From TrEMBL:
Belongs to the ABC transporter superfamily. The keyword Nucleotide-binding applies. GO terms for cellular component: membrane protein complex. This is ABC transporter related protein. Residues 9-229 form the ABC transporter domain. It comes from Desulforamulus ruminis (strain ATCC 23193 / DSM 2154 / NCIMB 8452 / DL) (Desulfotomaculum ruminis). The keyword ATP-binding applies. InterPro entries: AAA+_ATPase, ABC_transporter-like_ATP-bd, ABC_transporter-like_CS, MacB-like_ATP-bd, P-loop_NTPase. GO terms for molecular function: ATP binding; ATP hydrolysis activity; transmembrane transporter activity.
């Protein structure tokens, strides 16, 4: 059956092989995956399943050994390093388990960064960053540095930074991995709200409780995708 929505991720027969001396380690084995605009999907798998390698390829942080991958209609494997950097900045919003906030910058300064990299004027970037942080309930924490924020608050700053440029794809790597249960619930509620607003979200996780809250689950084990719901 044809899918009416636009295809954001189209990955076909991805293979990733790492060379360890004379041995080859196949981390991804013939992985095919499609993600459509508006999808709220999880890639679920245990440690060592290949999910982090897959995330790095989907996020244009690494390239497969073979296969095909297009993101928002662009052939990623034919892109130059500069084009890949532009894709990461414009097309993808990353949310990492360890938040990856710059410690010397305040919350609002961290959120502004992607726009400043694009050449957006500082005043405009500041206004948009304030707006996103306020939407996520952090209006009283704009000028706090990461070490002055709780884990849940740092995660919300990271989410604000990911969405500020209106990317085609939100890619979240174990987004609740460093959070307590209350903050995890808050993060998933925010993801659901963002998805309801039309954002395409792909969560990489080992946590079945997280995966059960999305609309589609892809299971990965030993570098292979086994079920696609």
């Amino acid at each position: 059956m044809e899918h009416a929505a636009k295809c954001v991720i189209d990955a076909q027969q991805l293979v990733k092989i790492y060379q360890n001396g004379s041995e080859e380690l196949k981390v991804l084995d013939d992985v095919s995956l499609q993600v459509f605009k508006g999808d709220f999907m999880a890639i679920l798998g245990p440690s060592g399943s290949g999910k982090s390698t897959l995330m790095n390829i989907l996020g244009c942080l690494d390239l497969p050994s073979s296969g095909q991958y297009s993101l928002d209609g662009l052939d990623v494997l034919k892109a130059s390093e500069n084009e890949l950097a532009e894709i990461r900045n414009i097309k993808i919003g990353f949310i990492f388990q360890k938040f990856n906030l710059l410690p010397r910058l305040t919350a609002v300064q961290n959120v502004m960064l992607p726009l400043l990299y694009r050449g957006v004027k500082e005043e405009e970037a500041l206004g948009l960053a304030r707006e996103k942080l306020t939407l996520l309930g952090l209006e009283a924490r704009l000028h706090h540095r990461p070490n002055e924020l709780s884990g849940g608050q740092q995660q919300r700053v990271a989410i604000a930074r990911a969405i500020i440029g209106n990317p085609q794809l939100l890619l979240a790597d174990e987004p609740t991995g460093n959070l307590d249960s209350k903050s995890s619930e808050d993060a998933m509620r925010i993801f659901k709200e963002l998805n309801a607003q039309g954002n395409t979200i792909l969560i990489i996780t080992h946590d079945t409780e997280v995966a059960e809250q999305v609309d589609k689950i892809v299971y990965i084990r030993d570098g292979k995708i086994y079920e696609n719901h």
